[in-house]
Design a protein that fits this description.
Blueprint lengths: L2 E7 L9 E8 L2 E11 L11 E5 L4 H16 L8 E5 L4 H4 L9 E4 L2 E5 L4 H12 L1
Parallel strand pairs: 4-5
Antiparallel strand pairs: 1-2, 2-3, 4-6, 6-7
Amino acid sequence: MLIHYSIIYAVNFRGFKNNAVLFVSIGLFPFIMVKLLFEIPGEGVKRMKKIKMFVMTGCPHCTNARRFMEELFEENSEYRKLDIEVINETDEPELANQYDYYYVPTYYLDGVKFHEGVPKKKMVEELFKSAIK
């Protein structure tokens, strides 16, 4: 019995949402056996943006910002999936000196400064929404 496997990338078919579909042909009768559960890079694939947060030991505004972040994680579980790197400039001054900011906390979104200074919960929420877009 001849079994032939081929993978068809359905990039241009809106119904498949850039998923791969595995077709298996047994003899002359093709059957769709498995719809693979991974996305193929390309059009339509969402990528969350990376967030860098600069803080300093003892900073009350940094403590408030972290509290706002925790509250938002509780309100929307999607925010827990965000790629957030917290850099304490007290512990990593060489890394912190590579960025242009003066006040903490400071947020960068995909390498672009998003906010610097005293945070508000609404601003942190806007940051998270922008990272998901």
